[in-house]
Amino acid sequence: MTRAMAFEPIRTSPYPAWPRPDPAVEDAVLTVARSGHWWQSGGGAAERLEEALVAEFGVAGAVAVGNGTVALELALAALGVGADDEVLVPATTFVSTASAVHRLGARPVPVDVCPRTLTVDIDAAGTAVGPRTRAMVVVHLAGHSADLPAARRFCDARGIALVEDSAQAVTAEWAGTRVGTVGDLATLSFQAAKLLPGGDGGAVLATRDGALAERVARMANCGRRRGSALYDHHLPATNARISEFNAAVVLAHLTQYEHLAQARRTGAQRLLSAMPPGTVLAPDPRATCHDWYMVLLTVPDDLYERGLTNRHLVAYLDELGVPAQVLYPFWPDLPGFAGNGDRHAERCVVARRVTDRVAWLHHRLLLDPDFPEDLGRAWARIESAHADVLPAVSGRGV
Ligand SMILES: Cc1ncc(COP(=O)(O)O)c(C=O)c1O
């Protein structure tokens, strides 16, 4: 059945694509193809990517791997997380942060998040920690850095490991401290939508301990020591290597990263002025750098009470020509995780509330000069028309 349009589009031309069409990326892929160096055997793109990450983050070691999910699994396993351990995981995150823990036979324990940044609430972590807790994972969600000094103090005081899931932030900082440099290990994702896209791919950064990086490298490469012979296997392990092609694409993006990050920040400043206060989650004042991986748009209380959820918001924005998505589901409710009966999940009131209230918009939109005004106009239309169009939208089963 054809749906009646509730809104006339305010925008019909496409927003910038992501990944962007880029001759440097095409060159990088062709260079690998022509080199015949299609596999990691020293000196190739993966090795150069690892060196570049060490230099970029100023860390002790980096291991480029197949994706951000496997990076988390390897990081936790290298820190000794295993059967019957518990790991604190923010309740607002992509499912991989929790499933990586689950796949090691350990239990991800959900921790509530701060309403301003949707990153882990360290006070809430204090109520979730227990005798079996082995580690905490902080997630730098949507480009917001978590409070890294507080997370580090929390873990040190309890003798547990700290992992940073930095799939969604590359240069973000909390009070001058950059993401990826504080946890015992940090992980990155180079999936196609990410800030450093490689198609797929990921990395584990070892902030201070080069031996940890070596352990991860062996675990990701069939147990081989770095630089060792083909059949020199030191532990039973998996193959989680990044491909040379993906690594070359990430390397091509690394050189453009700062310029694009600056363009996003400029767009975001204009967006914050174009939108009513509180609708776009602005960075915490202690965050000295914000990466704007996603624009987090929240439904204000008055509209929520009149029935507007993030699903309606996304449907309206879609009709208006501004692409958006609803935030992640609350992972403790997903099949295979503890679910409603879990007392820790019940305490995650902010995380549960935002699954209904927050929509997010991809960073590529911030690269379009008209986006701030588009969203401002779209928001004004939704706000004024909401009372009339809501029944029509609800009837569509969103
Ligand atoms: C916070 C977070 N962690 C982990 C991942 C997993 O990364 P990948 O898709 O590269 O496996 C993602 C990817 O979306 C993510 O957003």
What does this structure look like?
It is built from 14 helices and twelve strands. The longest helix is centred in the C-terminal third of the chain and has 25 residues, at 371-395. The protein has helices at residues 23-35, 45-57, 68-78, 95-103, 122-128, 148-158, 210-220, 244-254, 257-274, 301-305, 310-320, 343-346, 349-357, 371-395, and strands at 61-65, 86-90, 107-111, 133-139, 161-165, 173-174, 177-178, 185-189, 202-206, 294-298, 325-326, 358-362. A seven-stranded mixed β-sheet has the order 1-9-8-5-4-2-3, sandwiched between helices. Strands 10-12-11 form a three-stranded antiparallel β-sheet. Strands 6-7 form a two-stranded antiparallel sheet. The protein has two domains: 23-254, Type I PLP-dependent aspartate aminotransferase-like (Major domain) (Aspartate Aminotransferase, domain 2, 3-Layer(aba) Sandwich); 257-395, Aspartate Aminotransferase, domain 1 (Alpha-Beta Complex), CATH 3.90.1150.10. The radius of gyration is 22 Å and the shape is globular. A hairpin with a 2-residue loop joins strand 6 (173-174) and strand 7 (177-178). The structure holds pyridoxal-5'-phosphate. Pyridoxal-5'-phosphate binds at residues 67-69, 93-94, 96-97, 139, 165, 167-168, 189, 191, 202.
